[in-house]
Amino acid sequence: MNWSLDKIRQHQHFDKSLNFIKLISIVGSTEVILKLIGFISGILIVRMLPVSEYALYTLANTMLGTLVMFTDSGISNGVMALSGRVWKDPKKLGIVLATGLDLRKKFAFIALIIATPIIIYLLLKNNSGWLSAVLIFLSLIPAFYAALSDSLLEITPKLHQDISSLQKNQLRVGIGRLVLIVLTIFIFPWTFVLILASGIPQMYGNSKLKIINRKFVESNQNPDPAIRKEILKIVTRILPNIVFYALSGQIVIWILSVFGNSTDLASIGALGRFAALMAFFTTISGTLFLPRFSRLPEEREILLRYFLSFQLILFLAAGCIMLTVFLFPAQMLWLLGASYSSLSSELFLIMLSNCIGLIAAMSGNLIGSRGHFLNPILIISLNLGTVIFAYFIWDLTTLRGILYYSIFNQFISLTANYIFSFSVIISAKKID
């Protein structure tokens, strides 16, 4: 037995594997705290807001996420791909980051102009008064601008695996958000106040991220036209995908906000709070696996081994989540309050859709971290086909019908991402 242990310790990959396991445990334990803080914040909001007000909160947060996705338009993918090539050079890394941030500011201006009338219209249609709609829109602006630089500023520390600094900053933001929510929700249970309470701590966190970046980046660099051209090449290739995903990714909310009612909208938002279970694995993979996969050499066996290992982790995570939902639906719904206690079957359906979506999105992000993206025409065609098919099969104006559609759509997306990912990996050069 001792001989076997000694042999394992002497293996050439033992130290690297041990360090990686330690890193996962550190990241995982911190992420548990972060997601617990976020989950408590979300549950507090669900239980304290009236159903009609929570419908507006759900809609506002969905619009914020869509607006951020439009503004990114693939810029973060381009910055990650280009940064993975020069991550050891502080000056070149600074130029890539500065160019990405400059592009995002320009995209943000365009996105905000287009989105403003849509946001106001949807809020008014879901029983918001004019004053409330305007206040909600104004509260979205600080949160929107905070989200502009957040994902870009995290790329460099992730590439250098400075995970502890990132997580300390995320903890500060999460605790600050929870404190502000607790201080305001009992006195001002309004959507615009809660959105402000979420956005202000993120603005503080971004200022700290800039300080963290100075350890690895020469931050006084100017945007570079050549780098901008390279990023825009990637943006051009995946922008149609981003636009379509921005709409189809939250199509459940969009359809219910236009054709459904505020009760169903609030219900889907409340059930979506359990998506925090997904966010834990999304953050782990985005922090540990995507930057490492981006740095791998273009060799088939190495890429395939990492990709399959990542899939195994994703399936195990999804299995654990679904088992929890199957065994404890009543307990989970109790957390949301009496208004949502009858949604056990809807809970199972939405979590199944989220699990399939988690695997599909992470697989696409993994191969996308190396600069490879699905043909946008194919993606749009597939998604339009699923919408048309679902229209004739399910009633998409009801909560149950739209959840069936969501599961079907995520499955099609997963299949397409798998076919594309394996084709890219197989086309890589083979080690002799």
Give a verbal description of the structure.
The protein is mostly helical and 432 residues long. The chain folds into two domains: 16-232, no CATH class; 249-432, no CATH class. Helices cover 83% and strands 0% of the residues. It is built from 18 helices and no strands. α4 packs antiparallel against α5 (90-125). The radius of gyration is 22 Å and the shape is globular. The mean pLDDT is 78. This is Membrane protein involved in the export of O-antigen and teichoic acid. InterPro entries: Poly_Biosynth_Transport.
Number of strands: 0
Strand and helix order? HHHHHHHHHHHHHHHHHH
Radius of gyration from the alpha-carbon trace, in angstroms: 22 Å
Q: Label the structural class.
A: mainly alpha
Rounded mean pLDDT is: 78
- Structurally, the number of domains stands at 2
Give start-end ranges of low-pLDDT stretches.
Answer: none
The major β-sheet equals: none
Which strand-content bin applies to the residues? under 5%
**Count of helices?**
18
Gross morphology is globular
Report helical residue fraction. over 70%
How far apart are the first and last residues' alpha carbons, in Å? 36 Å
Annotate the secondary structure layout.
Layout: H1 2-9, H2 14-48, H3 51-72, H4 75-86, H5 90-125, H6 130-153, H7 155-159, H8 163-185, H9 191-213, H10 225-248, H11 251-259, H12 262-271, H13 276-295, H14 300-327, H15 329-336, H16 344-368, H17 376-393, H18 399-427
Helix pairs in contact: 2-8, 2-13, 3-5, 3-6, 3-9, 3-10, 3-12, 4-5, 4-10, 5-6, 5-10, 6-9, 8-9, 10-17, 11-12, 11-18, 13-14, 13-16, 14-16, 14-18, 16-18, 17-18
